[in-house]
Specification:
The protein has 493 residues and is α/β, with parallel strands linked by helices. 31% of the residues lie in helices and 15% in strands.
């Protein structure tokens, strides 16, 4: 007669009760007492009892399919807090004829006559969208990207005024972009700031979905905190954790069978079952190696100093967005109220922003992913005719005060298969008056931050040929039958 095999307390069984350190674990209370499932933190293992006692509608809302990564264009929003300069000294801004319809002078936008865009070398269109030839944002992008990466980029300037240096501008379309298809398997929206928008500028009130408020991520370890299966992850390797979850699944099904089947909705039965199966899948899909930016070789190539705070927080969100785990990422960068009677502070800040934008592009190139980058700022800045001759000031006019009429936003689109095709041959939506201020009557978005957020959403939808869905996504279409005039790219799929 064969000898009976002795139980190994460190070996997890796949049949019968789960054993841990000599203790038989049969019930959910046993799992809680051993710290295997958590009641106080987010966990991928759902609470059976809470599912059973929930109502029918909740079960329908929760659904059972395992999360899928984003299959539409990833989106990153850079929120330059304080009222940065975008038009003129950075992205080229022109009159009603577009970017190359130069204004008579750009003095209020920070450019002496020697830097007027009509002069040789004072424009640069290597990324399609025209930048000033000495733009600090452009120089930052160039410093960290390859020519190949830049050749796959194009973009647009949106001439739109906004209130100066205030968080009340409804510039952030993150919720609408998520609803338009920028969705993640792990979380829908992430930001670097603990706000309802993830950044400084707010999201339009009508866009906010409380269920999808941004998670705050500033470092790779924060991403690891999004996936928590209690002590399962620390006590066992992934394979054993999956086997524990399978045991819980069987236990839960047996528990369900003891209830009055007439009173138990079918949705709850399937939700409990697929909830545990999905949890097993999630362990492998969202392992530490899969979501930790510091463990990603491509991230470390594009972001060469994760000890730098700005690089670290940008890399953390960029990785998760490009890998499809987060739908929309919001990166706030402060210090853009740089009207301190110098030029050098603004040039330095703009260069830093350009480098971060460029690193995201380079990461997209390495991962062979498309990405839409949207840059917003709360207000704008005006210059006075006093040249900053320091090395950092570069001989340009000093920034002297706020000017929301000299604001704008811009979009860059990296398409790995090659630069996207323009829909109407234009890269500037709206235009500027000879004074350098926004012509507020040019478009429905020129003097409305909320409409600007809707227009960006429309442009995102248009990347997938879905601009006709704008009203269903944002609630209305303030552009009516002129919407096509304000769309930049043909579909890129």
């Amino acid at each position: 007669m064969a000898s009976k095999k002795k139980n190994n307390p460190n070996e997890l069984k796949t049949q019968g009760p789960v054993c841990l350190e000599g203790h038989r674990i049969k019930t959910r209370r046993d799992f809680l007492s051993h710290g295997l499932i958590s009641m106080s933190t987010f966990t991928m293992v759902p609470s059976v009892l809470s599912l059973i006692t929930s109502n029918h509608a909740y079960a329908q809302q929760m659904g059972c399919p395992a999360p899928q990564v984003n299959t539409k264009t990833p989106v990153l929003i850079f929120d330059l807090a304080g009222g940065a300069n975008i038009p003129g000294s950075n992205v080229m801004a022109g009159g009603a004829g577009g970017q190359m319809d130069f204004l008579a002078d750009y003095k209020s936008l920070g450019l002496p006559d020697d830097f007027h865009p009509s002069r040789q070398g004072m424009t640069n269109n290597e990324m399609g969208l025209v930048f000033h030839g000495d733009s600090a944002i452009l120089r930052g992008i160039q410093n960290v990207t390859s020519a190949t990466t830049r050749s796959r980029v194009d973009g647009a300037l949106f001439a739109a005024s906004s209130s100066d240096d205030t968080a009340n501008n409804t510039l952030n379309p993150a919720y609408w972009l998520n609803r338009a298809g920028a969705q993640g398997g792990l979380s829908q929206i992430a930001g670097t700031r603990d706000t309802e928008s993830g950044g400084r500028s707010v999201a339009p009130m009508e866009s906010i979905n409380p269920a999808f408020q941004p998670v705050q991520l500033n470092r790779p370890q924060d991403a690891l905190g999004l996936v928590n299966i209690g002590k399962l992850g620390s006590l066992f390797n992934d394979a054993k954790a999956q086997r524990i979850l399978k045991a819980i699944e069987r236990m839960s099904e047996q528990k369900i069978m003891s209830f009055n089947q007439q009173a138990l909705p079918d949705q709850i039965k399937s939700l409990v079952k697929c909830g545990y199966v999905g949890s097993q899948d999630l362990i492998s899909q969202y392992s530490a190696d899969a979501i930790d930016a510091s463990q990603d070789a491509m991230v470390n190539q594009a972001f060469d100093d994760l000890g730098n705070r700005d690089q670290r927080k940008t890399a953390t969100i960029a990785k998760l967005v490009l890998d499809g785990h987060i739908g929309v990422g919001v990166i706030e960068k402060g210090g853009y109220d740089y009207h301190n009677q110098t030029r050098r502070t603004g040039e330095t800040r703009d260069f830093d922003a350009g480098e971060l934008i460029g690193r995201v592009m380079e990461l997209a190139n390495l991962k062979q992913k498309n990405v839409m980058i949207y840059v917003i700022t709360d207000g704008g800045v005006v210059a006075r005719e006093e040249i900053d001759n320091t090395a950092e000031g570069r001989g340009k006019y000093a920034w002297s005060g706020d000017s929301g009429q000299r604001s704008s936003a811009f979009m860059l689109l990296y398409r790995h298969g090659g630069r996207a095709a323009l829909r109407n041959g234009i890269r500037q939506i709206g235009y500027y008056k000879p004074s350098g201020g926004v012509e507020n009557t040019a478009t429905p978005a020129s003097n409305s931050s909320t409409n600007l957020a809707k227009l960006i959403t429309a442009n995102y939808l248009a990347l997938h040929g879905e601009e006709g869905n704008l009203a269903s996504v944002v609630g209305d279409n303030p552009f009516g039958n002129t919407l096509n005039n304000f769309l930049v790219f043909n579909p890129i799929a």
